[in-house]
Amino acid sequence: MQSLRILSVDDHEMTILGYKLILESIEFEKYSIHVDVASSFDLGKDKIEISAKSLKYDIIFLDIQMFSSDEQRMETGEDLGILARQIIPETKVVFMSSFNDSYRINSILKSVNPDGYLVKSDIDPKSLKELINTIMVTPPYYSSKALVAIRKSMSNDIILDENDRKILYHLSLGTKTKDIVEYVSISLPSIENRKRHLKTIFGIDKQNDLALISEARERGFI
Description:
Blueprint: E1 2-9, H1 13-25, E2 31-38, H2 41-53, E3 59-62, H3 77-87, E4 92-97, H4 102-111, E5 116-119, H5 125-135, E6 141-142, H6 144-154, H7 162-172, H8 188-201, H9 209-218
Parallel strand pairs: 1-2, 1-3, 3-4, 4-5, 5-6
């Protein structure tokens, strides 16, 4: 029987303890499960970096939004997924998030190419068992709501690039548009055009920057 080491990173401690309890109690034919947990971005980053130098995790579960000790840095589970891909590429990466927005999931698929994505409202013992059995043999595994979002995104392949995300992030910090040029390597007219485009794809064309920030936060981009 193969022993699987899993790291679950989520800043809701009850959530990760729930995953740990369920997974370690499921009877797998081929696997014995041990789940390690991290309740913040920083703890997750430390455990991933340590794993790269010693005994690697077989699977990493990541939420998208999570707390970081440095409020001036833009850090998400997506950043941890990119880090894991760089330093432990053989480890399976799975997102388990409440976000089922097609733009957000498509961004994750493009940047991390995860081995699975589960919308939290889809998660139960059966789906967790199916997830493990699938990604260890023939990934990827997507929950039902994630599949709906992925199919929707296939018909409209719009994603937010790094500059879009930086613009949203600095707007959320209260940075004036004219000052964002100090943080993004594009011109002020380009920033204004990107803001208009973001409002269009979010369906808030006629609204102000506060509405843009609110919508971006709701979709998990900031």
